[in-house]
Amino acid sequence: MQTLRKPVIAGNWKMHKTIAGARELAEAVVRGFPEVSQATLILIPPFTAIQEVRKTISAAGVEVGAQNVFWEEKGAFTGEISPLQLKEAGCRFVVIGHSERRQHFGETDETVRKKTLAALGHDLYPIVCIGETLEERENNQTLARIRTQLEKSVFSLDESSFSRVVLAYEPIWAIGTGRNASPEQAQEVHSFIRSLVAGRYGKTVADCAIILYGGSVKPNNAFSLAREKDVDGFLVGGASLEAESFLAIAREALRAVRD
């Protein structure tokens, strides 16, 4: 049986959807939201559609987030977006350190730390991503890599600040590949993460920490993953681009909680 932590289902739309398409998808999620309202749903569109999505969901209880943030409030940083600008656009959440950002754009544990501090300083909830490569998993380095990422990015926060962080474990080898960690693999890492949090901040903080799983999550595997004790929801990629599959994942997560 799952814990009493409220399931969080975050849809990362990545570089998909025009403004019109984002509005249409958000409207469809809003229509289906009443049946999954016991979960927290977060829509994470591209920057260009944040305000439109915010307007669409404003009365429904669905949240909106951004896919990235810079660590300065303003300045000569061409192409970047500040936490102040995200807050003004209506965001409450922001993804930081996604593996695609690490792979393609040079994100490091240090930049993740700086961005997390900036987000917290503007009352945004960071969704901080951590995870191992296929090579690291095959070499039995998964837990060591997770420990290092946490220590270098978020474990410098004080307890109050850390309590606002959402963690997302995303095995890099499972993102966009159609492969996903087995429920047992996911639980092993999530349990390890929670034990590290307990060691750093204490059991009460660890028990309340939200740890999402991300990596080819679909309606047909969401239930088995969400049944694991330390899996508190999902960071969903491709399956969040259709309202029907995104809502189905939320339904499966809630079914797992009740099971």
Beta-strand percent range = 5-15%
Please summarize the sheet with the most strands.
Answer: 8 strands, parallel
What is the top-level CATH class?
Alpha Beta
Radius of gyration: 17 Å
Main structural class: alpha/beta
The separation of the N and C termini measures: 6 Å
Identify the strand order in the major beta sheet.
Answer: 7-6-5-4-3-2-1-8
The residue-averaged pLDDT reads 95
How would you briefly describe this protein structure?
By secondary structure, the chain is an alpha/beta fold. 46% of the residues lie in helices and 14% in strands. The protein has helices at 19-32, 50-57, 83-89, 99-105, 109-121, 134-138, 142-153, 159-162, 183-201, 203-208, 219-226, 243-258; strands at residues 8-12, 40-44, 63-66, 93-96, 125-130, 166-169, 211-213, 233-236.
